[in-house]
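Figure 6 in text form: structure in, sequence out.
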C-alpha cells in the first residue's frame, strides 16, 4: 500500500509539471511542451494570448508638406475595454508617391514600429504602437524625399495583452502592367488576423484582396485596406489583390497572433 501511495504521489507531481508550468518556459510560442520534450502541445490552452477582436476604426487622406504626410486628430477609437490598446495603421498611396524610402512613423507622438513598407512607384506600409489613452491621434509618416501624392491611412485597434507577439509575419509583392499581385509567403496562425494594404496606379474596376473584408477602398478606388479575421489555418499563406484592367502596383500583408 505504501509503495502504491508513493507511486500515485509521484505520478501527480509529473502531471502537474507537464500541464501547469508556464508555457513560456518551454519555448513553444506559448504552448506547453509535450512529455519528453518531443514537440509542443497545442491542444492545451496556453496561459498567454486569447480571443482577438480586431476593429477597423477610420480611414482618411493625409495633408502633405514636402517629405511628410500628416493625419491630424484621426480617430483611433475608445481606449476602454483594453488591457493595453495597440493601434495598427495601414498606409497606401493613390498614385505614384515620388519618394523611395520611409524614415519613420509616429502615432500620437509615439514612435511606431514599421513592420513593412514597399515602394514600386506607389507605396504601401503597415506600422503599429501601443497607445494607451485618447480617442484621436495625429499620425505622421516621414519620407526620405519629397512626396507627390496624397496617401491614405486606416486605423485598427486590438488588445496588445492578447497578442502572442507584437511582431507580425509579413509578406509583400509588386507587379507591373498586370491584373493581380500576390505577396510573398507569410506564416499565419489560427485565431489570429491578417491586415493587407494595396495600391495600383490607374483607376480599376473590381479591386479586391481575395477572401479578405474590404475596410476601405477597393472597387473603383486605386487603393485598398483589407482584413481577414476568421478561418485562418496555421501555416504558410499568401494574399492576392485582383482587379480588371492593366495596372502596376504593390501589396503588403501582416499576419498577427
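Output sequence:
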Amino acid at each position: 500500500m505504501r509503495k502504491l501511495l508513493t507511486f500515485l504521489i509521484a505520478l501527480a507531481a509529473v502531471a502537474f509539471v507537464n500541464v501547469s508550468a508556464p508555457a513560456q518556459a518551454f519555448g513553444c510560442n506559448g504552448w506547453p511542451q509535450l512529455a519528453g520534450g518531443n514537440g509542443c502541445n497545442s491542444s492545451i490552452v496556453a496561459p498567454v494570448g486569447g480571443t482577438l477582436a480586431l476593429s477597423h476604426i477610420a480611414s482618411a487622406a493625409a495633408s502633405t508638406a514636402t517629405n511628410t504626410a500628416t493625419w491630424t486628430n484621426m480617430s483611433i477609437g475608445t481606449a476602454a475595454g483594453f488591457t493595453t490598446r495597440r493601434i495598427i495603421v495601414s498606409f497606401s498611396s493613390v498614385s505614384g508617391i515620388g519618394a523611395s524610402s520611409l524614415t519613420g512613423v509616429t502615432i500620437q507622438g509615439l514612435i511606431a514600429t514599421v513592420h513593412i513598407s514597399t515602394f514600386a512607384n506607389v507605396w504601401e506600409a503597415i506600422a503599429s504602437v501601443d497607445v494607451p489613452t485618447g480617442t484621436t491621434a495625429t499620425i505622421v509618416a516621414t519620407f526620405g524625399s519629397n512626396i507627390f501624392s496624397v496617401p491614405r491611412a486606416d486605423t485598427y485597434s486590438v488588445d496588445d495583452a492578447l497578442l502572442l507577439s507584437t511582431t507580425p509575419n509579413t509578406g509583400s509583392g509588386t507587379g507591373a502592367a498586370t491584373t493581380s499581385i500576390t505577396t510573398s509567403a507569410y506564416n499565419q496562425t489560427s485565431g489570429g488576423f491578417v491586415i493587407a494594404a494595396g495600391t495600383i496606379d490607374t483607376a480599376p474596376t473590381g479591386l479586391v484582396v481575395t477572401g479578405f473584408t474590404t475596410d476601405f477602398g477597393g472597387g473603383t478606388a486605386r487603393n485598398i485596406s483589407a482584413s481577414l479575421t476568421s478561418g485562418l489555418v496555421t501555416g504558410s499563406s499568401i494574399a492576392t489583390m485582383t482587379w480588371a484592367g492593366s495596372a502596376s502596383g504593390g501589396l503588403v500583408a501582416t499576419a498577427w497572433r
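Caption detail: Helices lie at 2-20.
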